[in-house]
Amino acid sequence: MQDADARYQAMLAHDRRFDGVFFVGVSTTGVYCRPVCRVKTPRRSSCTFYESAAAAEKAGYRPCMRCRPELAPGRAHVDAVGRLAALVVDRIEDGALDEAGVEALATELGISSRHLRRACESELGVSPVELAQTQRLLLAKRLLTDTTMPVTEVAFASGFASLRRFNALFRERYRLAPSDLRKQPRAPRKGDAEAAERHGLVFELAYRPPYDWPAILGFFGARASAGVELVSEGRYARTFRWLSNEGWLAVSASDDEARSVLRVELSESLKPAVAPALARVKRAFDLAADPIRIAGDLGKLAEQRPGLRLPGSFDAFELAVRAILGQQVTVKGATTLASRFSHRFGKPIATPFPGLERLTPTPEHVAEARPEEVAGIGLPLARAKSIVSLAAAVRDGKVSFGPRASYESLVTQLVALPGIGEWTAEYVAMRALGWPDAFPSSDLGVLKALGETSASKARARAEAFRPWRSYATLHLWESLSALSKATATKKGGKR
Fold it and tell me: Is the pTM of this model over 0.85?
């Protein structure tokens, strides 16, 4: 939606489909808002529209205290330039510019710094440095509003190397001191007291409705590795590691569905890693997706479950190991093996959740294990060798889940390893990269749902689903699940 008048109409309707797609600067107040903001809608003549919060701040606007632009969902892209810009946003959220500069980020992405700057300017209206500054400030604003962290901790957790620089930039952009923002009253949220008992920090992450929370929670729940993950009482919890920071996180849906947010709780030990932890939640739960657009393009296939999201991963190596463990066994069997694997090779950790007690094993640790040790969890020796080979390849950089990885390159790297076939590689690449147009054509469920007998025929059929073949895959799997439930109900009725 590029037309300014159309964007104004979306504002008038408070249309959540466009939340995070654009921001509006209001000249009469000097404030910029999300299109879903509930304050009195300004006149059209007072509105200027921007592609990003950073572009609005570059133009001199400060964030609205009511709708809080830092809570807006991200944007998903399918074109090359848009995906590059989204990748830059992801890496900056991970702190890529906190220690190094634009040149280093460009090298990491395998492009020139000029191309990197051009992509950011084209899609977001700002340079990478300006984007990073806004990301840090908005994270700081969120921490000041939603936590009781000391201002000094907020500054460093937001990526600032200097408290003085943080205070100066915050005052320059937002026209108040960080401590002044904290003085403003905040209504208590449901669950805050419970989180405080667990020494947790509570955040909210927005999405564009519809969002099929039961489906994605059920997906993760069926595959949860006991010790590392736990799904219970409508909540997904897991242990989490970022560099030297170790802790836990928990994700649940808001009781108020109309607010379109997920509730995220982080352990206090993850204070220095708030930004990357929240970024991982966004990707794992596919919060940047545009479900209306996806369902519209997929047509009849998506009619029954338009809110399906692509389940991502918190740790790509963990996902790849899980996929190998799942070869030729049931989902339940693979889950049992994954739990044994994490208890054998994962580091112990204390959490307030009973049974959540292991960090996921690292490739560096697993690469040093003998295949016979891995086989000891109940695996054939050949499959154990595959896991050790994968760990060594990730450790040595021969398999990369990093920002330069494309779906095609990752599949190629994975199938070159012993014991990893086309299906395993396609499945891992689809979820690890959050690739919207992946298609595991050899998947038996996909073939059955399409009524095809060969991967080549399935690929030909799937051309109609571009650029959303990953989502089409989810809908095909879901159609089989629905058929299975309907059949079971019918048989039960006969008895």
Answer: yes
